[in-house]
C-alpha cells in the first residue's frame, strides 16, 4: 500500500523538481533548467512518470522537428533522458522509455558548429606577440585628454594578448578571468583562490600560481585600476557599468542597515567615480 501511495505522487513534475534539487549546480543554472523545461512540464507535468509512453515522447518531439527547431528538440530529449535515468537510479521505474528511442535514427540532429582551429604557426606568432606586449617597458595605457580626468583609461588591445596568455597557464573560463579580483590572488603563498559563489559549480577553486602566471600578475599589478586584475582590458563603458552596479549594491546595503546620510550619494559617487 505504501508503494502504491508513493507511485501516486511520482508525477513528472515531482520527479523533475527532485532531480533539479539534487544537482550540484548554481542557483542560476537551476533557474536556466527550469526555464528550458517549461515545454516538458506543460505536456508531461501532471502525468505519472510510469505512465509516460514512447509514443507520448515521440509525438512531443516531432512538433519541434517539423518546425525546424532541431537544437531545442535535442535539448529537450536529453533533459527527458536524464530525468528518466534519475528515476531508474532511485527505483521509481523499472526501465526508461527513452532507451527505446533511437534519436539519431528517427530524428534530425542539429547542425554541429565546427569552430576554426588555431594552427601551430598562428599559436607561435601569438606567443611572440604576447611576450612583446608583456615585456614592453612603456606604460601599457595610452592617455588622452579625456582619460586624464578619470582613472578609466583608453583601451589598449595588447592587453587581450596578455589576458589570453594568462589563460594558457591558468585553466579558467573567460568569465572568471574577466572577473578575477586582486583579492583572489595570494602572492605570499603563490596561490589562486576563487570563492565558491564565483564558480559555475559553486565550489571553491584553488590552483598554484606558476612562475609565468605570477610574472603576468606582477606586470598587471603595475597597471592596477581597481579591484579587478584585467579591468584595463575592458572598455570604458563596461568599467563604468561595473562601477555603477557596485555603487548601487553598496547604497542598497547601507539603506538596509539604516546608514544612509545626507552625503552618502556624494561619497559613493567619489568612491566609484560615477559622477
TrEMBL record:
GO terms of molecular function: DNA binding
Keyword DNA-binding: yes
Keywords, sorted A to Z: DNA integration, DNA recombination, DNA-binding
Gene Ontology terms: biological process: DNA integration; DNA recombination
Source species, domain of life: Bacteria
SUPFAM superfamilies documented for this protein: DNA breaking-rejoining enzymes (SSF56349)
Name this polypeptide is given: Core-binding (CB) domain-containing protein
Amino acid at each position: 500500500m505504501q508503494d502504491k501511495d508513493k507511485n501516486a505522487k511520482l508525477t513528472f513534475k515531482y520527479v523533475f523538481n527532485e532531480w533539479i534539487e539534487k544537482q550540484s549546480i548554481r542557483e542560476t543554472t537551476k533557474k536556466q533548467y527550469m526555464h528550458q523545461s517549461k515545454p516538458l512540464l506543460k505536456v508531461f507535468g501532471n502525468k505519472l512518470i510510469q505512465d509516460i509512453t514512447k509514443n507520448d515522447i515521440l509525438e512531443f518531439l516531432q512538433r519541434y522537428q517539423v518546425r525546424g527547431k532541431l537544437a531545442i528538440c535535442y535539448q529537450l530529449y536529453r533533459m527527458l533522458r536524464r530525468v528518466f535515468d534519475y528515476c531508474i537510479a532511485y527505483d521509481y521505474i523499472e526501465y526508461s522509455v527513452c532507451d527505446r528511442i533511437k534519436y539519431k535514427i528517427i530524428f534530425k540532429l542539429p547542425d554541429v558548429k565546427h569552430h576554426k582551429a588555431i594552427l601551430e604557426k598562428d599559436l607561435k606568432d601569438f606567443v611572440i606577440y604576447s611576450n612583446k606586449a608583456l615585456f614592453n617597458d612603456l606604460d601599457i595605457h595610452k592617455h588622452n585628454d579625456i582619460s586624464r580626468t578619470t582613472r578609466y583609461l583608453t583601451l589598449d588591445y595588447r592587453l587581450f594578448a596578455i589576458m589570453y596568455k594568462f589563460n594558457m597557464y591558468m585553466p579558467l573560463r573567460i568569465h572568471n578571468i574577466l572577473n578575477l579580483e586582486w583579492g583572489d590572488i595570494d602572492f605570499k603563498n603563490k596561490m589562486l583562490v576563487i570563492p565558491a559563489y564565483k564558480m559555475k559549480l559553486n565550489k571553491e577553486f584553488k590552483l598554484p600560481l606558476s612562475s609565468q602566471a605570477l610574472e603576468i600578475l606582477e606586470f598587471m599589478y603595475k597597471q592596477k585600476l581597481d579591484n579587478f586584475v584585467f579591468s584595463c582590458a575592458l572598455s570604458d563603458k563596461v568599467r563604468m557599468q561595473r562601477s555603477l552596479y557596485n555603487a548601487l549594491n553598496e547604497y542598497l546595503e547601507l539603506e538596509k542597515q539604516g546608514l544612509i546620510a545626507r552625503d552618502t550619494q556624494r561619497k559613493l559617487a567619489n568612491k566609484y567615480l560615477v559622477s
